[in-house]
Specification:
- The chain is α/β, with parallel strands linked by helices and 199 residues long.
- It is 21% helix and 22% strand.
- The chain contains six helices and ten strands; from the N terminus they run βαβαβββααβααββββ.
- The strands form two sheets. It has a seven-stranded mixed beta sheet, with helices on one face. It has a three-stranded parallel beta sheet with strand order 1-2-3, with helices on one face.
- It is globular, with a radius of gyration of 16 Å.
Length: 199
């Protein structure tokens, strides 16, 4: 009964794809998520492993696939149902982790996009977790300082992250709930942290 799928980065291990004809499109996407049984749109953001290859190839693949949706490094799409509007904001967070040339500033884009949204609910998804103290990488101080306040200021309901190879839902912080779902390919043991509602 799903309407679409969100991919939270590291879509292609170990080093992304190199072009729209890369064989990993077949082995890691088309053959895994069979279009006959899963004729759904897949909305993706790149992760750190995708940036080892060509994130631009993942953007370009959106122009030739009916299912793969990554029109840019940052984008928004809306879903409506039962009289409610939900905006989903995709952000390539690698521009915070490392400088990548002339990539657009994701934080400035996000601030503007959230401010102009009239949706009933706002959901942001990116690769890196803001708070991940139970995980291997731990809390991301830069995201907590620069990214989280933007989400909280604009009333974002939910932030979805990958990167950490476990599953977790955390208690709200400033009205913002964070869920981590990074165990699609590999998983690691995790013990609940002080803010975990489920881990």
């Amino acid at each position: 009964g799903a309407d679409f799928v969100l991919l939270l980065g590291d879509n292609f291990y170990p080093a992304g794809v190199n072009g729209v004809d890369d064989p990993m499109w077949r082995s890691h996407f088309e053959s895994v998520y069979d279009p006959v049984h899963l004729p759904l749109p897949f909305y993706a953001v790149p992760g750190n492993h995708d940036h080892k290859g060509s994130p631009e190839a993942q953007i370009a693949y959106s122009r030739q696939s009916a299912r793969w949706r990554m029109p840019d490094h940052h984008y928004v799409f809306r879903r409506e149902g039962q009289g409610r509007r939900v905006d989903f904001f995709a952000v390539d967070l690698m521009i915070i982790e490392k400088p990548f040339g002339d990539y657009p500033d994701g934080l400035a884009w996000l601030e503007s996009a959230l401010a102009s949204s009239d949706a009933d609910h706002k959901i942001v998804f990116g690769h890196f977790a803001i708070w991940a103290s139970p995980g291997r990488y731990g809390d991301n101080a830069e995201l907590a300082e620069r990214f989280a306040p933007i989400l909280q200021r604009h009333g974002v309901d939910l932030y979805l992250a990958g990167h950490e190879h476990h599953l977790e839902i955390q208690a709200p912080r400033g009205g913002l709930v964070q869920a981590i779902s990074g165990a699609g390919s590999q998983n690691r043991d995790v013990a609940p942290g002080p803010m975990s509602r489920f881990a």
